[in-house]
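Journal club prep — side note

Before the paper discussion, L.F. wants everyone to see what a predicted structure for a comparable chain looks like in token form. Sequence:
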Amino acid sequence: MIKAAQKILKDIFGYDDFRPLQKEVIENVLKKKDTLCIMPTGSGKSLCYQIPALLFDGLTIVVSPLISLMEDQVNQLEALGVEALMLNSSLSADEYQKNIQLIQQSKARLLYLAPETLLMGRTLALLESQKVAAFIIDEAHCISEWGHDFRPEYRQLMDLRERFPQAVCLALTATATQRVQQDIQKSLRFDKSASFVASFNRENLFLEIKQKSQSAEQTLDFLARFPDQSGIIYCLSRKQVDEMAEFLQGEGYSVRPYHAGLSSEVRQQNQASFIRDDTQIMVATIAFGMGINKPNVRFVLHFDLPGNIESYYQQIGRAGRDGLRADCLFLFAYGDIRKIKYFIGQKKESEQVVAHTQLNALVGLAETNDCRRIPLLTYFGETYNDANCGMCDNCLAGDQASRDVTIPAQQFLSCVKHSKQIFGAGHIIDILRGSKSQKVKKFGHQELSTYGIGKDFSKPEWFYLSRQFVQKGLLTQDMHHGSLKLTAKAWEVLRGQLNISAPMEELQKKRPQTKTEQTYDSKLFELLRQLRKTLADSSNVPPYVIFPDKTLIEMAIYFPQSEAAMLELHGVGKVKFVKYGSSFKQTIAEYCQVNQVTEKPKGGSSGKLTSSSKTIGTPRHQVVGKKFNSGSTIEELREEFKVQNKTVLDHLYKYCLDGNVLRGNSDFLELSQLSSRIQSDVCKAFKQYGTLTLRPVFEALGQEVSFEELKIIRLHYLANEQKNT
């Protein structure tokens, strides 16, 4: 029968050859042998059951967890002329009944169902009247309590084996650890020998993990690498999805949100727009992407911490399905761990142990200094032996300089010992940093010899170190309670028999600005932060767009009360000064008057690049801005940097936001297709609503002027405003 399968592969699906393991899985299914298939996203799992379904005499049932997945598969099959149907809540009453009649008339080869629909009495009665040849359980990890997306209703599917003993069963998933694989086989009563596991390594995905700092700026910098290309941004909450989508829309990106809080109709519209390349970026929760076979997704950005490694792997798997390079950036913040732990706390007690284990594995992936593929593939039971994958940030970074951290290790381990090895890292760090928390006082830990000896390190730095100590085998951690216990290796460190080191760049005791930051006026800084927040809220932008913290810190050091002094500060250019300077000046002046503080000269360089500065390592928008001011035209810049006009305009706008002045000329208006009257209307709108976000201007003009045109006129407007200032 494999020859018939080969013919279907070519004639119906249009492929000349099977991908790795497809042929073996299909052969096993055609022999009516129950089969477990673990294959990464984009490797062609669907063909493993679609081809047998066209060869079987009878109906193939496909159990799928999401309506969007069913619709995608059915639409693709219908386009190929394959008789495929679905039964779910997205169908009208008439459509639902029509599909039932087609099933009764044996006019369907494949039927897609959610497990809840399949287990309904009327559905089972319908299927018992038919010849069911195969049961396909897609996203089979949902059947396991150890899976990242456990669904109790999946557990009930094992009863179908007794109702339909003649039907072969194929379970498929892209993400399953060895434990999950064993659980699936046990639950479905599979022969362990009938399993096929492909390599989990997606060689075309570039993996990168960065510490989350100025997250919005990091997001914009990442997106600038993929002009007019498709990508997905994953956020943890619906609120964050909405805020991110709104922010990116304001920046002129083609973007739509997707989460369970939106109506089914809106989700379907947004998904369709993305799939059809009408929308560039989808900002989503984990509710988006399962079963979406969009081959040209060039990037996936995790703005928030994924729930676990399996979720992370499944979500990055939606990129690069065409085999071409795709980039995956994960912005990692220790603060996000608290959010995940909150969600874990909502689970059943038995499930919390699993969730904590998975979370720790994810943090280990984020903190590793080795090739990212080593912990990622190890998690799935696969050994990765290449010394350098060439497709992750760590491998491209080369050897990283390390520093000796034996003394802080001894401090931390000693504190664990003296507090009787029953507390987690957070409490140990509180003791080391001399916290006056109620918990420290409750246990009398302010009396310990280690109390307050670790003030040289910040809390995030101690957390980083604590995880390094766990990774290096100095500590073990209870997966449920989080308590830390010393290992035999830890005692070697305490006795001075073993030294410990950690990468320098990951552990900077003092950042370049730390010494300055320690001397700023914290009360004034808070007042300025509140002012910035008010201005940001009124403009509907993130606070950093007004001024970054570094600017506020300098304000709280030098107390500038004149235009000249304000313009000396980091991030304060003429445009921003005109827009916000008076508000900040007034707040500073009032504070200085009440507290009898005088202005201090900043002195030295303003930190801005000079025309003679080298461009190596300089941000691209600075290079483009300087060349533009030196006389280069938009066309010349486009040719030199091999980018589109839109990208040049984006660079010039970022150059403006840095406080730089653009030369005034007619280059911008030459790019515009608008009449002079409409151009004038757009400028008036910018004068009224400001230039930080495009959305208010877009709506004020009746949504009739495109974002591309708005970007052009915005630069023309800013150049003129700067010239007249």
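L.F.'s comment for the group: The longest strand covers residues 205-211. Keep this in mind when we get to the figures.
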